[in-house]
Amino acid sequence: MSTLVIEGSQWGDEGKGKVTDYFAQQADVVVRSQGGNNAGHTITINDEKYALRSIPSGIFNPHTKNILANGMVINPKQLLEELHILESRGIKEYQLFISNRAHIVLPYHELLDEAYEKYKGDAKVGTTKRGIGPCYSDKANRIGIRVGQFIDEEDFKNSIVESLKIKNLELKMLGLEPLDADVIFNEYKEYAKEIKKYVCDTSMLIEKEIEKGSKVLFEGAQGAMLCLDHGTYPYVTSSSPAAAAVPVDCGIAPYYIKDVLGISKAYTTRVGEGPFPTEIDSDIASYIRERGHEYGTVTKRPRRVGWLDAFALNYAKRVSGINYLALMLLDVLTGLDEIKICCGYSLDGKEIDYVPSTIKELNRVKPIYITMPGWKEDISDVKTFGDLPKNAKIYVKKIEELTKTKVVIISVGPNRSQTIELEKIF
Ligand code: GDP
Ligand code: IMO
Ligand code: MG
Question: Which of 49, 86, 90, 301 satisfies CB 3.0 to 4.6 Å to 296 for a cystine?
Fold first, then answer.
């Protein structure tokens, strides 16, 4: 059995796309199990940059089966646009499979996402406005439309009429125009025709692949601190990026999941609102933002920047079972005199051993830092751990010590070749 979960261990954008693509060169299957086009996974192949949103990062390997599993919310219009862009860039041979149990994001989800954000005012979440929250809400409220229904014209027509009975009331309540079922049906039935050939029972497919010994990667979206249950609620996404959710989100047994590679930047970023204990607001933040091109893949928003939060990493490790780490964007820290790592939190002057559950408390948390010496050498062409500058090595070792987790990948640039693999885990 060879499965590996790639999981964001911070607030997203840690480099999951790069790591998935790196491993996908040997993977038989890559599965996206949750989220939707709120994700933006950047892959750089020979300096060519691709930004994937709903499509798994194994799409560049024609031998890899790419699966969108039942835990995802899929915007069919955007998915087809993404596919067409890839095709226009020469990615024409690929294998794609879409779960008949995944949910469909429709125009009213995006409108409602935007309206809820507007009415929340200062309390807004800072969502990607891709309709993710409203689509998962409909799923939980049992008024969602699934892919299996979507590709059956009669079923889709009836479902959209039924859904709009409720959704139009909600739209009107929020001061928006009601939508016409026929207009949506006539546009979306064309998308349904196009995606129908990819739709199947992906739970059976994934199990079959695992059982026959295929190498299967589960590509997480978002990150542990954005988890609906364990993240900084309500400033979170509406699914669970934790590895523990993979079995449910894919329809497979939990014993198929053993190894979980937590992806972490060598510092921290966050996009959107919400607590961020190690956030820095100084020239150092601008330095890191510019060197790391820290602007959102999906919304182009500047990402908030902070020091590495090893306390939050340990929390992510505990709630999601991370047993290896990939340390990304280490090259970005080159040039800093000193680098800080947060190794604990204090609340109202007292050190605590837990991550508070309320925003009220999280906003009062103060990070406890240790300070490490920086390095000046450009490391973007370094190929082995031994060739890293001494202080960069000490920094990596410190992170291993603080998290009691082995760093198996160090990334020193966006390209595939800028990857130092310290131990083979896949
Ligand atoms: P994801 O959402 O976790 O897949 O991450 P994103 O793609 O949203 O953001 C990570 C960004 O960092 C992308 O622009 C990547 O191309 C880039 N990147 C990944 N690894 C490295 C690295 O080691 N060094 C540098 N400089 N950039 C990297
Ligand atoms: P990847 O997979 C970073 C954030 C949004 C917002 C919150 C809720 O590229 O790491 P949503 O649209 O999901 O309802 O927004 O979650 N968010 C992400 N931040 N990376 C992502 O994905 C994100 N997906 C959602 O900015 O704060
Ligand atoms: Mg991203």
Answer: 301
